[in-house]
Amino acid sequence: MKSTSPITLLICALGGEGGGVLTEWLVETARHAGYACQATSIPGVAQRTGATTYYVEVFPIAMKDLGGRRPVFSLNPVPGALDAMISSELLETARQIGNGMTGPERTLVLTSSARTLTTQERMQLGDGRTEAADLLKLVQQFSRAHQVFDMATVAKEAGTVVSAVMLGAVAGSGIFPFARQDYEAVVKAGGKGAEASLRGFGKAFEIVAQGKQQADYLSQVLADPEGSTTAHAQAPHGLRVKPAMTSDAPALTSSRPAKTSDDIALTSGMAAHFPKPVRELFALGYERLLDYQGKDYADLYSRRLLTVLVAECEIDPAGDHDYATTTEMARWLALWMAFDDIVRVADLKSRASRWQRVHGEVKAGDDDLLKVYDHFKPGVPEFAALLPPTLAPRLVAWDRKRVARGAQPWALPLKIGTHSIFGMVALRTLAGMKWLRVRGSRFATEQKMIEQWLQGVVQGSLRGWQLGHEIARCGRLIKGYGSTNERGKENLLHVLEHLARGGVPMEAARAVRAAREAALADDAGKALDATLVQHGAPPRPVKAVPIRWVRKPRKLAEDDEARAPVQ
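^ thats the sequence. predicted structure below, dont judge the formating
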């Protein structure tokens, strides 16, 4: 880097993450340290909540050494001419790299491994997430050096915003000729929240500075192999030699509440009936259903899973497939059995942990008054789900007749203040109706469908391991709520009825896999119907959809007549 060229930095932040504050901090730090600086913002829209990039240039010679001269800065970044880029989200980093902003011979990339899923990723019925490994390869390929760590987690642990963590990463990289004290002095002048910002700043500074130190040491060893022994002797105590440019995938974390000793003893006792590869997912599923409905329901889950294990052991007694079918069932069976209903929603909305999470997200102080309003709109299906099977069809039929006459489906819009006594009592009362859930029509319907799927897995496993495994993986089709959930269950039952029972087991397994992948790739169902026909199964039956005729307002009709050409 020439001393007569400004140091260039591009800041990439999503909406609401404080990119503007970070830019102001950097400008104030440059002034505090006595260097000339210029910053511009470039508003834009990314795939999520909106992204704005900020461009900062700092002249590397102090103002006092310029002899009265003034440097000339650019107003916008030049692709390939960046000295550094920092981003708070991994896909946003890849997006800017795709725009050609970074150069593999020049640019230092500091990025978070955290992800904010795009709309397209969320719309997928299956796992639509972009692979983090592919994004990291892109970062590695188009950067001179890079460091990746979870900035969102660091900010959360420090009780601050991600902009403070990003400032610490910039300071730790040493890209600008500022001392750490210059950065900290500017943050301290911010007033309220400065202490938390300094905590996040300090953690990020240490992470990046240590990574830079390791990278510099590794470069020294690689550049001078003969002197590697001497270099090793001079290495800082406890420093492990590894490339700072690599990053492990983000660790999976759990937000579940801590278990009591009784829960641990109960779950571990039940898990002993299953082989080691299954135990972790079984423990999670059992715990989920214990919280959802109680011990009897959780025990039903374990008995159902045991039937799958017995069938898998019969076809694969040596465990050559590492009990993959039972492992898949442990996951998807627990999720299906813990289906969402108004009782579950009321329970989750009224938990103390939820109030604590909201309180922390808005950063409410001790003197702040926090009010939380929840909006609900339960309809006939939600209320019919809790009615006995003899009464629920009557309520559903009544609403269907209304819709057939042109009316909107009946629903009850509610706005409940969960901060109030009335709102909390109402939700806790509804959350306590677990006894009513097991007597409702939906519970009976869900259990019947679960048993059909369970028998399909068991019978398929006895015919061939691959077939049972593919049917078990069809549990991915059951997700979401409302029409999405109903469509997934109908697709699963159609596959069980027409693909899983006949033919050669291996061919049936391939057909089931193809149908599942088609159903997850296209929520409209066209790909699934084509796949069903291709494998000799009938397409799904066409559902009748009512057509609503809406009368055009008189004013619009008169305007159309006035604009009509005269014959």
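Residues 228-258 have pLDDT under 50 and may be disordered.
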